[in-house]
Write a structure and sequence with these properties.
The chain has about 100 residues and is mainly alpha-helical. The protein contains 3 helices and no strands.
Length: about 100
């Protein structure tokens, strides 16, 4: 898409739409990866002694990494709502922001 003749508002709207599409594929992809990893871990647990211990360790590390990524995503998502809605209670917002800086 050529953006040479577009106004800034149109460019920003296109960027926002692209970011929404990217977010949906990445977040849904992350959920799917977590589910897949969880299934693999459960399968290894059900196999018992036949499972390679290094594989189980690798899967647990991967699961931990994915869960941390998901947690970071939701914390960042929560902040966007917090900043957007901050004017609803300005005194509370400023007190929280000030204590967060400390």
């Amino acid at each position: 898409m050529s953006s040479a003749g577009m106004q800034i508002v149109e460019k920003l709207q296109n960027c926002a739409n692209d970011l929404k599409a990217w977010s949906k594929t990445n977040v849904n992809g992350l959920k799917q990866e977590i589910d897949d990893c969880r299934c693999e871990v459960n399968y290894c647990h059900n196999q018992g002694a036949a499972t390679d211990p290094t594989l189980l360790t690798h899967l647990r590390k991967r699961m931990t990494h994915l869960m941390i990524q998901e947690d970071k995503y939701w914390r960042q998502h929560e902040k966007t709502h917090w900043y957007r809605d901050r004017n609803l209670n300005t005194k509370f917002f400023h007190a929280s922001a000030t204590s967060g800086k400390r």
